[in-house]
Amino acid sequence: MTTELPGAPRESAPSLLAPGARVFVAGHRGLVGSALVRRFTADGHEVVTRGRDGLDLRDAAATEAFLRDVRPDAVVLAAAKVGGIMANSTCPVQFLEDNLRIQLSVIAGAHAAGTRRLLFLGSSCIYPKRAPQPIREDALLTGPLEPTNEAYALAKIAGIVQIQSYRRQYGASYISAMPTNLYGPGDNFDLETSHVLPALIRRFHEAGRDRAPEVTLWGSGSPRREFLHVDDLAAACALLLSSYDGDDPVNIGCGEDLTIRELAETVREVTGYQGEIAWDSSKPDGTPRKLLDVSRLASLGFTPRIPLRDGIARTYAWWLGQLPPRA
Ligand SMILES: NC(=O)C1=CN([C@@H]2O[C@H](COP(=O)(O)OP(=O)(O)OC[C@H]3O[C@@H](n4cnc5c(N)ncnc54)[C@H](OP(=O)(O)O)[C@@H]3O)[C@@H](O)[C@H]2O)C=CC1
Ligand SMILES: C[C@H]1O[C@H](OP(=O)(O)OP(=O)(O)OC[C@H]2O[C@@H](n3cnc4c(=O)[nH]c(N)nc43)[C@H](O)[C@@H]2O)[C@@H](O)[C@@H](O)C1=O
């Protein structure tokens, strides 16, 4: 279905991000930020970064001073407190407060510094737990959230409203995007805090290495998730920055999902593990399904390039390359 898209460019519209623009990627050492640096560098932009050791983005005064000094043409906000279902469940205070503070600092600081373009990254968990599938952008605030990540989701929803408020009050050309579950090189493989895909790669690899007869995974295996390779996400972000200027957030996904059980089978095959899979029902399942409706992004010309199985194989190879010898 094609819908009229507020703020969408016409065929001949000039790019909203000039060639060689100076882009500040906040969170450049993370999964998403590192992919954005690769992408914007390849596109010929001047990429500016600053590590957390040099600038804590929760510090509003320091962040504004940094942005006034650097004067970026565009900011991509990929710095956040991020984690999988267990980290979200056990540390809701940090997921709420760190993200609210980072968003307040960076978005207000960019406006004060005269930054013309800004892309804020939310997450598919902002939508109601029982939203109709696939989830359209207008499902926002239509029902209760998934409890395991409510604090994080509420911080992200505040970010969307902050962006919309800067647009409404100041005419700022700031936008929001809502990515689905992401994976790829640079992901977090810590079993306590990671998302499911890197956790599965690590669990099956280590079980194969140790000749373990069984791998235990969390929950029932029945929840469905949609996964997008982070290089596809970076391409979508570049497209949005150059061509989208609307009030509404834009979903970023591949348009297909699978059960965690099916994902586990795929990761098992990629890693070559031969043993059994057990399920620990004492661990949370989280939301039953969150497949995004990506027709708005598709209407802008985005097509994901990296099939899930290839992306998993590439991520596994990348992670193996990070391990110390004999790990
Ligand atoms: N991963 C996923 O599946 C999804 C991610 N997203 C969104 O994408 C964005 C990026 O996520 P992702 O790359 O996965 O997360 P990561 O945890 O991999 O990276 C987050 C980055 O933010 C930085 N950061 C965190 N807190 C601060 C701070 N106080 N000051 C300065 N820098 C800070 C981290 O720095 P350091 O390296 O020092 O820790 C890190 O570089 C987030 O907004 C997230 O909500 C959305 C949907 C799915
Ligand atoms: C991106 C997204 O990420 C989070 O939401 P989530 O998708 O529920 O998170 P997840 O990737 O950790 O789990 C997905 C599913 O997988 C199951 N599962 C099995 N075995 C393991 C396992 O070993 N580790 C993990 N982490 N999960 C496992 C797990 O039980 C669940 O059913 C939130 O941060 C949310 O805020 C958010 O935005």
From TrEMBL:
Taxonomy of the source species: Bacteria, Bacillati, Actinomycetota, Actinomycetes, Kitasatosporales
Metabolic or biological pathway, per its Swiss-Prot or TrEMBL entry: Nucleotide-sugar biosynthesis; GDP-L-fucose biosynthesis via de novo pathway; GDP-L-fucose from GDP-alpha-D-mannose: step 2/2
UniProt-listed InterPro entries: Epimerase_deHydtase, GDP_fucose/colitose_synth, NAD(P)-bd_dom_sf
Record-annotated NAD-dependent epimerase/dehydratase domain positions: 23-253
Entry superkingdom: Bacteria
Keywords of the record: Isomerase, Multifunctional enzyme, NADP, Oxidoreductase
HAMAP family, A to Z: GDP_fucose_synth
PANTHER family: GDP-L-FUCOSE SYNTHASE
Chain positions of site Important for catalytic activity: 123, 125
Catalytic activity: GDP-beta-L-fucose + NADP(+) = GDP-4-dehydro-alpha-D-rhamnose + NADPH + H(+)
Amino-acid positions noted as binding NADP(+) in the UniProt annotation, renumbered to this chain: 27-33, 121-124, 156, 179-182, 195
Annotated organism of origin: Streptomyces nitrosporeus
Residues the record lists as binding substrate: 203, 218, 225, 285
Pfam families: Epimerase
Name of the protein described by the UniProt record: GDP-L-fucose synthase
Gene Ontology biological process: 'de novo' GDP-L-fucose biosynthetic process
EC number: 1.1.1.271
